[in-house]
């Protein structure tokens, strides 16, 4: 009797454990899939981990409102028992700054970028405006961007395409550009653009755009520094306030 009973009990217990284990895995996968679907879109920054029906929310939230809202959405998914909100916030940048520099080695994007699609959008603009040029992304995610920052940053990066060497920078929504134009047409495009209304309610604070230098045999046709700026005879500067 013993030889039959105990192996039978052991086998039954093992099968029960396996059934629970596999069943738990199916529950976790189902909850993870449905919660991720609920968070898609505005909360695509969020990821989830499941331990049975207990959910942990992770990711870098753009702000406190999004952080709390994502946890509320996850908790509302049928089958989720509890939610531990481990989503974090990026650091606050004051001022929120951005810089893009174009040298002979390529373009370096640095400074701050808000969470969300802004980074990808800026990189896409840079790659399309300057195909074949190496783009190095050194941007760091931060809070504090003005609503108009993405539009102004895209404009700034696109202006680098018309500079042979130079840089553009943003501080909050203050915009600066300096460098040498890639050609006569590029010079006119740059001057016209900064003289108009800037995207994202940007404000021009400094523009030192040097016309293309004529190629004179024996002359030094190289710019004085890596930004492409020589001491220009006619720097483009914003008008003085009345």
Q: Please, could you describe this protein's structure?
A:
By secondary structure, the protein is α/β, with parallel strands linked by helices. The protein has two domains: 2-85, Histidine-containing Protein, Chain: A, CATH 3.30.1340; 97-210, 3-Layer(aba) Sandwich (hypothetical protein tt1634). Helices cover 36% and strands 25% of the residues. It is built from five helices and nine strands. It has helices at residues 2-39, 64-75, 118-129, 149-160, 184-195; strands spanning 47-51, 54-58, 82-85, 97-103, 106-113, 135-141, 163-171, 174-181, 203-210. The strands form two sheets. It has a six-stranded mixed β-sheet. It has a three-stranded mixed β-sheet with strand order 1-2-3, with helices on one face. α3 links the parallel β5 (106-113) and β6 (135-141). The protein starts with a helix and ends in a 32-residue tail after the last strand. The relative contact order is 0.10. Mean pLDDT is 85; it is low at 17-22, 226-234 and 236-242.
């Amino acid at each position: 009797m013993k030889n039959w009973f105990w192996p039978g009990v052991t086998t039954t217990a093992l099968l029960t454990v396996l059934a629970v284990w596999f069943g738990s895995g199916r529950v976790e996968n189902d909850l993870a899939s449905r919660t991720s679907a609920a968070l898609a879109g505005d909360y695509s920054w969020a990821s989830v981990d499941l331990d049975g029906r207990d959910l942990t929310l992770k990711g870098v939230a753009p702000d406190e409102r999004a952080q709390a809202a994502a946890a509320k959405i996850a908790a509302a998914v049928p089958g989720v028992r509890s939610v531990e909100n481990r989503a974090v916030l990026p650091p606050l940048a004051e001022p929120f700054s951005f810089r893009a520099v174009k040298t002979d080695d390529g373009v370096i994007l640095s400074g701050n970028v808000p969470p969300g699609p802004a980074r990808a959008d800026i990189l896409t603009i840079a790659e399309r405006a300057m195909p074949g040029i190496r783009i190095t992304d050194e941007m760091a995610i931060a809070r504090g961007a003005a609503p108009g920052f993405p539009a102004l940053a895209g404009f700034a990066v696109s202006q680098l395409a018309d500079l042979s060497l130079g840089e553009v920078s943003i501080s909050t929504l203050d915009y600066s550009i300096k460098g040498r134009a890639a050609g006569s047409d590029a010079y006119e495009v740059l001057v016209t653009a900064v003289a108009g209304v800037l995207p994202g309610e940007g404000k021009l604070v400094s523009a030192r755009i040097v016309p293309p230098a004529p190629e004179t045999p024996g002359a030094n046709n190289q710019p004085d520094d890596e930004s492409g700026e020589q001491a220009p005879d006619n720097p483009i500067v914003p008008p003085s306030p009345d």
